[in-house]
Automatic annotation (TrEMBL):
Keyword flag rRNA-binding: no
PANTHER family named among the record's database cross-references: ECTOINE DIOXYGENASE (PTHR20883:SF48), PHYTANOYL-COA DIOXYGENASE DOMAIN CONTAINING 1 (PTHR20883)
Known cofactor(s): Fe(2+)
Source domain of life: Bacteria
Keyword Oxidoreductase recorded: yes
Gene Ontology molecular function: dioxygenase activity
Name the record gives this protein: Phytanoyl-CoA dioxygenase family protein
Any Pfam family hit: PhyH
SUPFAM superfamilies the record matches: Clavaminate synthase-like (SSF51197)
UniProt entry keywords in alphabetical sequence: Dioxygenase, Oxidoreductase
Length: 344
């Protein structure tokens, strides 16, 4: 595997990231971009040197060319539904017996505004079963969660895009639509090389138009970056906020003639998107409809070397399909406690 990745790196012509400058970052540094985002990227040549392309249920060259132009791809029916069903059974177990677990959840409700992230054990089951809930990094707890996150059909595409080993960074599980305003992930999910970031939206059920589906602007990965007043990353020093970010993205995409599209995919389908694709969650028009989904963020080996919660210590790794995910350094006793996936 190491030999293959070395060959891929040569074909990709990637370089290591220089030291971060003190002044605010206002654009991705060109020389640190994934090879596929550079002007001279030769997809056909790359695929010829990439043996995994022969064993995929999709045309890799076609998907990579589409990615370059649009900033996303949809992979049809690439995850086994039995795996998805098992993942959701574990979430139901987590909710029903929440007092036994430490998994963190984010609650975007007014009464939790002062403390939006808490252990699942401290949240009432009625809240956990409702909207405005994100289950954070459940893959830490779940063997099948890790297997889905690092599924061979996802890893093969992202390894080709990065020209490097894939690292699973974090995950979110949703029962209902997020209803999140337009954004780009790199502003909030930051790897050591900002452009070395991608995400997968994995449908755990068929998506209905009234369930608050994901939306996105094809081609928006190429527009100019938004400056929060202290650069392209949102933090406690920013003078502008996510509402300003959303307004900028919507207006800029519309001025550029980019058309908003709605994601209506089927259970087992996967949307993979670029770090800079503008996207969000639409309004839930029918509150009885769920939108069960598993969202995973990824980086490359050179760009994400340490767990974000313990950046000064070498991480403990789990390897699946040639990709790695790091053990949560703060909850090692919760790692892989849902074990049914070992049989699958």
């Amino acid at each position: 595997m190491a030999g293959l990745l070395n060959k891929l790196k040569l074909v990709a012509k990637q370089t290591f990231m220089p030291e971060r400058k003190a002044e605010p970052v206002t654009e991705f540094a060109y020389d640190t971009l994934p090879w596929i985002d550079k002007k001279d990227a030769d997809v056909e040549s790359f695929v010829q040197h990439y043996p995994a392309a022969k064993n995929l249920p999709y045309d890799l060259a076609e998907k990579m060319k589409f990615w370059r132009e649009n900033g996303y791809v949809i992979l049809d029916q690439v995850i086994q539904t039995a795996w998805l069903d098992q993942l959701w059974r574990e979430i139901e177990e987590l909710i029903e017996h929440h007092e036994e677990y430490q998994t963190l959840v984010r609650i975007d409700l007014p009464e939790y505004q002062s403390k939006p992230v808490q252990p699942v054990k401290d949240i009432p089951e009625s809240v956990l079963n409702g909207p405005y809930i994100k289950f954070n990094d459940f893959h830490d707890n779940s063997v099948i969660g890790k297997k889905i996150m690092l599924h061979k059909n996802i890893v093969a595409f992202l390894e080709a895009v990065f020209g490097d080993k894939v690292i699973g960074m974090q995950s979110l599980l949703f029962k209902y639509g997020s209803q999140q305003s337009t954004h780009q992930d790199f502003a909030y999910v930051v790897s050591e090389i900002p452009s070395h970031l991608a995400a997968a939206w994995i449908a755990l059920e068929d998506v209905h138009i009234d369930s608050g589906p994901l939306f996105y602007y094809p081609g928006s990965h190429t527009i100019g970056k938004f400056n929060f007043g202290n650069g392209i990353f949102f933090n406690n020093k920013s003078t502008l906020d996510p509402n300003d970010f959303a307004k900028y993205l919507d207006e800029t995409c519309q001025k550029a003639g980019l058309q908003k599209e709605t994601l209506l995919i089927k259970k087992g389908d996967v949307l993979i998107w670029h770090a800079a694709l503008a996207h969000g969650g639409d309004e839930i028009r029918n509150l009885s409809l769920t939108r069960k989904s598993f969202v995973c963020h990824y980086s490359s080996d050179k760009a994400y070397r340490h767990h974000r919660q313990n950046p000064n210590v070498d991480p403990i790794r789990r390897t699946i399909n040639g990709a790695d995910v790091f053990v949560n350094p703060h909850m090692p006793d919760q790692e892989d406690i849902f074990t049914e996936g070992k049989k699958m």
